[in-house]
Amino acid sequence: MHEKKEPWIRLAKRDGMEGWKVWCIRLSSFLVAVLLGGAILRMIGVNPFNAYYNIVVGSLGKKTALRQTVKIAIPLLGTALAIAPCFKMRFWNIGAEGQITAGAVAATYFALHWVGKVPAPVLLLIMGLAGAVAGGIWALIPAFFKAKWGTNEILFTLMMNYIIIGVVKWLQGGPWEGRKGSQLIPMFKSDAVLPKVFGVHCGWIIVLILTILVFIYMRYTKHGYEIAVIGESENTARYAGMNVGRIIMRTMFLSGAISGLVGFIVSSGANTTLYDGVAGGVGFTAITVAWLAQLNPFAMVAISGLLAVLEKGADSLQTLLQVPASISDIITGIFLFCMLGCEFFINFQMIFRKKEGHRKEATRP
Fold it and tell me: Which of 102, 107, 219, 330 has the fewest beta carbons closer than 10 A?
């Protein structure tokens, strides 16, 4: 029988890596992204140094730009916080987009029908609670099916995004349509709009408070411990007497509630109305934020800010340097790819096959 040939290259999971090496890899990946992005900009005739300067200035250089950057970061951070407990439990919640939309729908109902009936602070509180409950219920549906019948949560949560978006489209052209034939829901009145603090709606305060609460919940509470145990091994959790199905549903309700609260913040703070694209894709981008942060809520603050700078700065490339929108998206994609790719080299190592002569020499008695 022929001896099975060892593969030329194989992967092995690292037991651990020193902190300074981890940050060296991350810094290197960032520099690679800068170089690749610069090469693409040079190919289309744009000075890379000028382009990167405009990205920074266009996102942080003026008060108005900085406020827009913060507005972009708010839902990213809030949604990353929402999905972190699920991912820690290895329940892959890909439905944050729909849960945000469900929360926005519930908040919009009260914004349209309760204005003038209660004081503005009470109305905003009701809208926030309604958004959280609606998002939680929307997330609880796939969690129940997973706990009861073991359904695939990735497909279930993903498909539910399109259902709620379809509901919003129906509302736009039906019961909540403003001017006949406009296919638009009316703008919220001032009582239903979040107040501004330092020029930005107070949603940034809400998500920063949530950052602290989620960190404490995941790190120092019994619920957080149960989530971590289930993430390591469901069998171990069951052996320890944990009700895995109940914990899954509880965690998903919490995740959906935070996403629904983000929906309220976006609809009442940033858009002041509801439309089918209210989530704006943050439900998917937040997955990147959560993974890059290693599910650490405080790291999510920095990464959400970085991605917001890239997104706002990419917009400035279009307006100031006339760079096509597609190129701006490519630059952003390169940065995301490199930032995610570096985690591969942090967690895995590549082992190359030794030469035949060296191997025989190594095995000689």
Answer: 219
Q: How far apart are CA 360 and CA 288, in angstroms?
A: 45
Contact 344, 78 (CB under 8 A): no
Residue that wins the pLDDT comparison between 342 and 240: 240
Higher-confidence residue of 4 and 363: namely 4
Q: In the prediction, which pLDDT does 210 show?
A: 97
CA distance 68 to 85: 28
Residue 108: Cβ-neighbour burial (10 angstroms; 0-12, 13-18, 19+): buried
Tokens at 87, concatenated: 């991912």
Q: 81 by DSSP, 3-state: which?
A: helix
d(CA 226, CA 248): 10
Which residues 6+ apart lie within 8 Å of 117 measured at CB?
A: 123
Task: Name which residue leads in pLDDT, 30 or 132.
Answer: 132
* Amino acid residing at 120: A
In Å, how far are 170, 185, 275 from 181, measured between CA atoms? 13, 11, 15
Element at 10 (helix H, strand E): strand 9-13
Instruction: Extract the tokens encoding 221.
Output: 């509470």
Q: What's the pTM value of the predicted model, to 2 decimals?
A: 0.90
pLDDT tens digits for 117-126? 999 999 999 9
Q: What share of the chain in percent tops pLDDT 90? A: 68
- Sign of the CA dihedral running 221, 285, 87, 144: positive
Which phi and psi angles does 93 have, rounded to 5°? -80, 100
Chain segment 341-364, per-residue pLDDT in tens: 887 888 777 777 666 555 554 445
Query: How many Cα atoms are found within 13 Å in the side-chain-facing hemisphere of 248?
Result: 24
Q: How many CB atoms lie within 10 A of CB 25?
A: 17
